[in-house]
Design goal:
By secondary structure, the protein is an alpha/beta fold. It has 2 domains: about 100 residues, 2-Layer Sandwich (Enolase-like, domain 1), CATH 3.30.390; about 120 residues, 3-Layer(aba) Sandwich (Rossmann fold), CATH 3.40.50.11590. The protein is about 30% helix and about 20% strand. The strands form 2 sheets. A 6-stranded mixed sheet has the order 5-4-6-7-8-9. Strands 1-2-3 form a 3-stranded antiparallel sheet, sandwiched between helices.
């Protein structure tokens, strides 16, 4: 089986129908890409991985808009985190056109994942509103985040190998695709009852994730591309996405 990154790129290229990138915004919280079809997608910007970057973060800056999407999506394999986010955002914009609405639900994650007071939940990538909801229902909720390892309540990532295999439910932020840790983390939670890939950056591609044992995809479909671009340009993030997007939950099991 190909790596998840290669399979995501392959999917994007195989579904490319001549779409071009109309606009790109690389913000402090997210990157957004709008296609000439008026569809848009996002990817998280991992700012902590830019600490040692030069003043020019992308060598091809100024030439991405106008490019065919099939030239931009392969940036997902770049070691440059800014380029990686552009590649994932372009892929997410492309797949916004796919028809998955009939499989979607806006039910609460606690209900969808059937989290009870007996469950130990592991979350890789801090999503505070989700954590606050889950910890009220679960026996324990452990959060790992490489960019917040010194924050109170965030466990050090060195403990993942020991603690994640003991979790009944696992929530993996789509940031694991951006920092290339998805496969290693997935192997640690292979025994979990539920494995959810979550966040606005999550590619809503059931076939790609189901065969890897993921049981739920939880992402977003954006309704107003121009408003999204403005929010991202002004350093906005998930909290600002509500009025211009729909939460989409796709059950894979």
């Amino acid at each position: 089986m190909n790596t998840i990154i290669e399979e995501l790129i392959e999917y994007g290229l195989s579904h490319f129908k001549g779409e071009r990138v109309e606009d790109v915004r690389v913000g402090l919280g997210y990157t957004a890409v709008k296609l000439d079809t008026a569809q848009a997608g996002v990817a998280c910007m991992l700012r902590h991985r830019l600490d040692n970057a030069a003043c020019c973060l992308m060598a091809n800056a100024g030439s991405i808009a106008g490019s065919p999407a099939d030239r931009v999506i392969p940036l997902l394999r770049s070691p440059n985190i800014a380029e990686t986010s552009v590649g994932l955002a372009a892929l997410n914009a492309l797949i916004q056109q796919d028809g998955y609405e009939e499989d979607s639900s806006n039910d609460d994650l606690v209900q969808l994942l059937d989290i009870t007071s007996n469950d130990r939940v592991g979350m890789v990538g801090d999503i505070t509103p989700i954590f606050n909801r889950i910890q009220k229902h679960a026996k324990e909720c452990i959060v790992f985040d490489e960019g917040k390892s010194d924050w109170e309540g965030i466990a050090d990532t060195s403990l993942e190998k020991d603690m994640l295999p003991r979790c009944d439910v696992a929530l993996l932020s789509a940031t694991t695709l951006l920092n290339n840790t998805f496969e290693s983390v997935l192997s640690m939670v292979a025994g979990a009852r539920e494995i959810c890939v979550i966040g606005p950056s999550a590619p809503l591609l059931p076939d790609v994730f189901k065969k890897r044992g993921v049981t739920l995809l939880s992402g977003r479909r954006f309704l107003d591309a121009d408003r999204l671009l403005r929010i991202v340009s002004e350093a906005g993030g998930t909290k600002r996405f509500g009025p211009i997007s729909l939460k989409v939950n796709i059950r894979l099991k």
